[in-house]
Amino acid sequence: MALLLTCGLSAIYYLQRKSTHDLFEQRLTERAQLTAALYLEADEQSWAVTEKVRQRLLHELPGEIMGIYDQRGNPRFLQEPSTRFPASLLAQLLHKPRVVSTVGGRQTVGIFYNDNQGNFRILVSALNVTGQDQLAYLRLVMAAVLVVSLGLSFGLGWLFAKSAFEPVRLIVQHARRIGVSDLHLRVPVGKSHDELTELAETFNLMIQRLQAAFQQQQSFISNASHELRTPLTAMIGELDITLNRPRPLAMYQEALSSTLAEAQKLKDIVNRLLQLAQLDANELDLPVGSLLRLDEVLYAACEEISVTHPGQQVSVQIGQLPDNTEELTIPGDENLFRLALTNLIGNACKFSDGRPVLCTLSYEGSRLLLCVIDQGIGIAPEDLAHIRQAFFRAENARAFSGFGVGLSLAVKIIELHGGALEIESELRKGTTMRVVLPLRG
């Protein structure tokens, strides 16, 4: 603000100073012409005209001096005989019709004048006292304006900045109150749709995501500890009872078999947790250039299910497919994607209680649809929002074996392949798991 004001006031002062100088210069030129008319052309004019010119010359300028020089530079008339004009000005008038000089506060104007008596050089010099006084007053006013304007701009700017940043201060105050145990708190969002409102909304969205992540982490830790504790407790109890007193060989074998089964279960849980942790940490990447064909992976997953779930009826139905079957090939890891499908089909078989499971493959528009449809116990509407969380198990699923990790693992693998999992379910009527994948471009 100081720089802008200084530049603006300086421009005004420069223009006013130039205008004052030019006006006084014009006035001196007129005085030189009047001098020529009075002293050189008086014999050619009437008395009235000469008197009128003389009256105009009576009003002298401050410090005014006049001089008339002939062609040779000899003074023909000097208002003050002791005063002589610089020889340089006289020399310039030999080549120029008009010369101007300013020394300090004194301005001098010289004109070349041709008369019937010969060529003359007329010079007039004076002090522009009034103009200098006006410029001095203007400088004083400008200095006062600069000081007052800077003071007002500082005060008003401080008030404006304080008012403008008040919402930021409130956001900072509320943000400082939010800790790990207070993630339910939010910063206030203003009613105006400006950048600060967008900042507050973005901050609240971040806190909401952090809250969801902490809740998911707490749920994960709680469920994981429960799932890990169960086989460990069973193993410790079985071994404790077996070692309590001597047992027959058959009982030792039975105890070791039971312990081995629990250890295998524990190993499965740990493997699932490691896979899930790698996917959450984005440590698993699809091999560069690797491709998988959906129909082949689907058939392979169904064959694997037939081994792990003997007697379970799993059928595959191929619907409308693209004209170019190469579009069924997508970038991805065949083993990982087969693991996701076996988890989905395995869950369908487990919760179907022996009823048939149908797998379909078709395409719709620009996407491929792979559905796993069962006629099992279904999922309650209030559980659908949490069913993707690791170790979450719906109330009606607790009677079935499992750890609650398979579906979370499948979701992560499908998302890694650029797809999405849609779930539709109705209690006691069945569930449809729909894998949506974009067609290969």
Give the strand order of the largest sheet, numbering strands 1, 2, ... along the chain.
2-1-5-4-3
Helix content: 40-55%
What structural class do helix, strand and pairing data support? alpha+beta
Task: Detail the poorly predicted runs.
Answer: none
Q: How much β-strand is present in the residues?
A: 15-25%
Q: Radius of gyration, rounded?
A: 51 Å
Rounded to the nearest angstrom, the distance between the terminal CA atoms is: 58 Å
Number of strands: 12
What can be said about the biggest beta sheet? 5 strands, antiparallel
Average predicted local confidence, pLDDT:
82
SS summary, helix count: 11
Shape: rod-shaped
Could you spell the SSE succession in H and E letters?
A: HHEEHEEEHHHHEHEEHEEHHEE
What does this entry show, briefly?
This protein has 441 residues and is an alpha+beta fold. It has eleven helices and twelve strands.
Give the SSE layout:
Elements: H1 2-39, H2 47-58, E1 65-69, E2 75-78, H3 87-92, E3 98-103, E4 106-115, E5 118-127, H4 129-164, H5 166-177, H6 195-244, H7 249-280, E6 291-293, H8 294-308, E7 314-318, E8 329-331, H9 334-352, E9 357-364, E10 367-373, H10 381-384, H11 406-416, E11 420-426, E12 430-438
Parallel strand pairs: 7-9
Antiparallel strand pairs: 1-2, 1-5, 3-4, 4-5, 6-8, 9-10, 10-12, 11-12
Helix pairs in contact: 1-2, 1-4, 6-7, 7-11, 8-9, 9-11
